[in-house]
Design brief:
binds adenosine-5'-triphosphate, two-stranded antiparallel sheet, 10% strand, alpha+beta, binds magnesium ion
Length: 469
């Protein structure tokens, strides 16, 4: 069964000082134990410590009931918030660090493939570890007693393997979200999914229809932000297809063009991995070429073309983002990136300012577009990739020069505004926007300076040309 303290010590030595339990967590653990309870660090903290990965939260599991945790920690001068008492969880704040402290528990029956109908508090740590999803997540660590690892999570971590605790089909039937969690840990950690676990993911994937779109989106986002996203997307696509069926037609779709040496799916997976890991650009990269199978046609020579694919990608992206769970503002920004990913811009200040104006002067969005173009280029045939990546870098450099020189590229930079347009006699309504945009075009194209007097004269002319119509 469990490994010894010696194993724990050597395991931690492997990962160096990052294994250290923070002193504030030690205080919470010793406060509970001095009151006669048992307490351990559990879950992601133990896994990530052993792997030498950066640590996020430290979760603590204890034999104390939440009411006992609350009173013992309050008496020790800590703050306590009742964040999930139904499941035995309170958040304890000690020296400005917050810890979720949860009573050892087992989950009751899952009748909806997602939430246990009830939880039952138990006395033993091992029972609590047994309810956890994967062996690498079912280890506990104690500052004095070392590692508790009844399911050999350490062995699986060393072999870079994701395996469920217990029978995989049963574990996925209890909670279908675990199917996506396996895929996202595979991407985040660079681990493979053990064969039986993967077969059960495939067999159980239809249960994902019972999982809320918020939880699906959250897991997919963690997956696409993972360091091993390319391999994870390619190796789990047949599972992901249950929530993203649009991926199916990309798989194995030969592009028949010298610019590409990978099928649409592999190109996409490589493009995602070729972008920096932030949500906006990674989602856009995932969606950017989804329209290719729909837009495809072949010349007599056998050469493939995808004219208009970006528009089809936009339509598919819109459908996915409405089905999953995204804020309208985020969705709109992703759609702009997908729509424009293939537009060609000269790396000149004028062209870049015009392109910036077309995305509403949103500098962050334009930076993301440069990142997307570079990631897209990196996933093209080697003969073309380097040159196209350099083009994206050039755009980025021109953008930074424009920003450094404080040059005008959006209406808010203009030395005139809507009031000036009205004063010049332009009627209220869309004509005001037309006038200001026309002024901005002329400033960007250096036909007039961004100078108040010159622009007022421009407005006068604009007004009289409207009045003549
Ligand atoms: P991260 O916080 O980086 O996403 P984590 O492993 O800490 O990773 P959490 O979702 O914070 O993941 O969950 C904490 C722990 O709770 C997990 O390590 C696992 O032991 C357990 N756990 C979480 N979700 C589930 C689940 N759906 N089924 C079973 N156990 C789970
Ligand atoms: Mg966590």
């Amino acid at each position: 069964m469990g490994t010894t303290t010696d194993t724990a010590t050597s395991a931690c030595a492997m990962a160096g000082s990052r294994c250290a339990v923070p002193s504030s967590a030690m205080r919470v653990i010793s406060t509970l134990e001095q009151a006669g309870h048992e307490a351990w660090c559990v879950g992601g903290f133990v896994r990530d410590s052993l792997l030498g990965r950066p640590i996020s939260d430290v979760d603590i599991a204890t034999s104390a009931l939440w009411e006992q945790t609350e009173s013992v920690c309050l008496a020790a001068g800590m703050r306590v918030h009742r964040t999930g008492t139904k499941h035995g969880t309170v958040t304890v704040v000690c020296d400005d660090d917050a810890f979720e402290v949860t009573t050892f528990r087992v989950d009751g029956v899952y009748s909806d493939a997602r939430h246990p109908d009830s939880v039952q508090f138990v006395r033993s740590l091992d029972e609590d570890l047994a309810r956890r999803d994967f062996t690498i997540n079912a280890m506990a660590y104690h500052p004095m007693r070392g590692l508790r690892d009844p399911f050999n999570g350490f062995g699986d971590a060393s072999r870079h393997t994701i395996r469920t605790v217990g029978d995989p089909s049963q574990r996925f039937q209890e909670d279908a979200l675990r199917i996506l969690r396996a895929a996202r840990f595979s991407s985040q950690l660079g681990f493979s999914i053990e064969l039986e676990t993967y077969s059960a993911m495939m067999a159980g994937k239809s249960l994902l229809s019972k999982v809320s779109s918020e939880r699906i989106t959250a897991e997919l986002q963690k997956l696409i932000l993972g360091k091993d996203v390319c391999r994870a997307l390619l190796s789990t696509v047949d599972v992901l297809s249950a929530v993203l069926p649009e991926l199916v037609s990309m798989k194995g779709f030969d592009q028949c063009t010298p610019y590409h040496s990978y099928d649409v799916l592999e190109h996409t997976a490589r493009a995602v991995a070729g972008t920096p890991p932030y949500p906006l650009v990674r989602w856009a990269a995932l969606f950017h070429d989804m329209g290719k199978p729909g837009a495809f046609f072949k010349e007599e020579t056998g050469r493939g073309h995808f004219y208009g694919h970006a528009k089809i990608s936009v339509a598919l992206t819109r459908g996915i983002m409405e089905r999953l769970s995204f804020s309208p503002a985020f969705k709109e920004r992703v759609l702009i990136l997908v729509e424009r990913h293939d537009e060609v811009y000269e790396p000149t200040p004028k062209a870049v300012k015009r392109a910036l104006a077309r995305v509403g002067g949103d500098v962050e969005l334009f930076r993301a577009l440069c990142d997307l173009k570079k990631g897209d280029a990196s996933a093209q045939a080697p003969a073309y990739a380097a040159e196209r990546m350099e083009r994206a870098d050039q755009l980025r450099r021109v953008l930074e020069e424009i920003l450094a020189a404080d040059e005008a590229f959006s209406l808010k930079h203009l030395a005139i505004n809507g009031k000036d347009a009205m004063k010049a006699g332009i009627p209220q309504g869309p004509a005001i926007g037309d006038a200001l945009n026309a002024a901005l075009d002329d400033v960007i194209d250096e036909r007039i300076p961004n100078d108040r007097e010159a622009l007022l004269a421009f407005l006068e002319n604009f007004a009289s040309s409207i009045n003549k119509e």
